[in-house]
Sequence to fold (968 residues):
Amino acid sequence: MGSGSNPRLRKRKRGAPLLRLLDPRAKSIVCGVSAALFERDQVLAELRRSMQSAARGHGSFIVVEGGVGLGKTSVLAEARRIAQEQNYIVLSAQAPEMERGLPFGVVRQLFQPRLMSMSPPQRRKVFSGAASRGAAVLGWAAEGRQIGDFANLHGLFWLTANLCPTRPLALVCDDLHWTDEASLRYLAYLVPRLENMRLLVVAASRPNQHGAAADLLARITADPACVSHPLAPLGLAAGSALARGVLGPEADPQFLAACHAATGGNPMFLHELAAALLADDVRPTASNVKQVNRLGACAISRRVESWLARLPADGTALARAIAVLGGEAHLRLAAEVADLPLPAALAAADALGRLECIQHEPNGSPDLVGFVHPLVSTAVYQQMSLVERAAWHRKAATALAGSGAEPERVATQLLGVHPAGDPNTVETLRRAATTALARGAPESALGYLRRCLAEPPGSDQEATLLVDMGTVAAEINLPAAADYLTRALVRCPRSERRAWIGYQLGRVQFGLGRYAEAWKTYQRAVACLPSGDGDLHRRLYAGMVSLGLAGLRHPKLAGLIDGWRRLESDASLGSHMLNAVLATFLAIQGDPGGVSLAERGLDNVLVERATSDMALACGWWTLLVSDQEPGMRSLDASVAQAHQIGSHCALGASLTWRGLGWLCRGHLTEAIDDLRRAVAAADTAHIVLARQFSGPWLADALIERGELEAADAALAWVAAPNPLPPSGPWYLYLDSRARLMRARGRHLEALHDARSSGRYFEASGGVNPAFVAWRTEAALALHALGCADEARVVATEELDRARRWGAPRTLGRALRLVGGITGGRAGADMLREAIDVLESGSAKLELAKALAAHGSLQRRLGHLVDARTALRRALDLADTLSAALLVDQIKAEIKVAGGRPRRSALTGLRSLTPSERRVANLAAAGHSNRQIAEQLFVTPKTVEVHLSACYRKLGVTRRNQLLPALRA
Fold:
């Protein structure tokens, strides 16, 4: 493009006030940064401390919060200066308000200048390992079509880590509230991983923001690694000193106090008000206080308006072009947008530079010109009418396209252009959406497609566009997906295409809990297909069975299922899906034949091609409650794949069911970690149905750890309506609430919730306690209430159903229940049988409970030695599993049995948690801490913590000793 450099343009001095005076008669503020940073000593001291700490490997994230004009930008300028003094690598970005739709725009501002300054070998080094996944985001690698790519975020994290091994790194981001959503997701991913990094992130933001960005900002600021520093308005003394620096030392204190009051102590407004008063020849005396109130706090906007009115036409045009381009632009490009020859643009830039409203070479780029502060850019932009803005955005889009700019940058301008039925606009927006998806920014892609729809496209393209929008939205926003797919269905004339759209819409409606609507959608889709039982038929049938599992009571469903069960299996995806949901339909009724059907349905075909479908979840559920190990192996593979494809829905589903798998096995720490991440994914994608699974299972794990308040919060997150709807999988929520009530000693409420859970479960055709053990909770509540005979009847019913199912966890739990209620020698025999059954399975927490119950009963029978033996073994298991509630109960029993509840440090191979064992296996195989962290999507610090625990438990001190210890 050519440099467009003009030596006459004046550079803005680092550390100068936020806005230099627009009037040449204005007196300079007191020299140095202190003039722009009155009463900011506390935040500057914190910045210095954080920089010293980050340089030693203790990273942190500082957010400077404040309204317009409170000095956030000045604080960030000082942060850059301090960081450079301390030998930091400093990467800066300023989020332009007009480019919030540009995915990863701020990330690219931060990293691209640094990457461009590197040699090819240096770039290869920083993009090594997992960091290579961030290359496409930054334009240094080819792009593939992906949606919501978590791997991109992981790659950007490792790119960040690779930039600071020898020198600390500072990322400085202004106007965080205007940052594009994809960049905010990167920062939200980064903030909990700052520990042990030589990295400091300093950002400025306005409070009380709304929308999706506000949710991400809240997630960032809520993290313990983030420290927020709200900036307050200046006090009277500081405000008077600032104004006196502009108006002169003779300014009257009463006049200065009026300036302070009129601006509320806002330093920028106070400064500009003083400059405006000076420009209007208002003497700073007590008699002119009324003139202060006349100008007020709108000085910046008024002065920009006055300034534009006095500028020549070329200067106004160039200023508007720069504003539309985001407040900063290459001079040649701005000249083209402004329809100015380059010499005229140079002259206009010179005039703007003399007024010190633009700066030349911002961030050291010789071709660029930009406003001295975003507020000036905003003021210039707001001076234009809506019609004028649209015209300027169209010119900017045309100029960017002609310069070879990437589609997303052109599309960002087109978002501000009035629709005109332009095919080129449609094509550009669609290409931008494809690029945004490849870069892992589905939110931006959806924004481009929405604008594309408004253009509008040709009638033959509209249905296809709506389907594309629904497909993208299904990964991040189910309500929007339902709307787009419903509209696509109306506009699609072809029957088979309508059936496919109906299938997609039914899945979305299922995820939103709209079961009756989903049933009708599936029925209409089946009717659109020719007769037969092909792949799409079977997918639709699987969806209808899923609705029955969710509690939809439809009179035709039972008869239809009998027919579908007789269909011969084939290799199609639909056949796998149908087998998986039919397996759960059988299993939930207690038929063990559902397990073999689930094994046939659940294989790599489902994991790879139905990542977020209920059919896959059904297959997992059946295998997990039957204590089958293939279920967990499949879930590990699915979690890894979900990270690769980046779907919120897929990741949330995989983490939810793997969390259940950990819970069934009693590994509470792993269960809570997975389920909390599943909750975050469900919130991101607005998956209503996920609340009814993730929330109760998370609450169950927290109850076992004794965290009852947190369990209560997990159930509150379910957002269950009051009263509950007549259908739906509310049995899990009610069963978990019964467990929480029992843990709190509220047995009557526990009994009510348990029985309500049973009613919902039986309405869904459920009798198998492996899925919902509501009778266990009811029997325990009845026993606590003194209704021993009734409790024994209910417990015996549970045992009969558990024996029919036969899985160790379910049978062992039922035996423990009946044995504990029965007591005496008969009860002891049942408890010994429970222990024998559970020894053969993987449900370690249930085994600990059975041992504890057996020890407690032996103590009551007077067999104290046997009691203490069983109780100590139970304590070791419960300790390993972090089951704090059970640990406390066992310790109390040991004391009563005459023993000491003191525990020794747990050691040995069996004491390793699943996470520790996974890390130990990778380390023993020769992987470095970094490679392990990259593979498991965790931080090196997490790997270090797990390895330290492994060394201690296995009694080793070096990495090469791990393999023999693991094989022992």
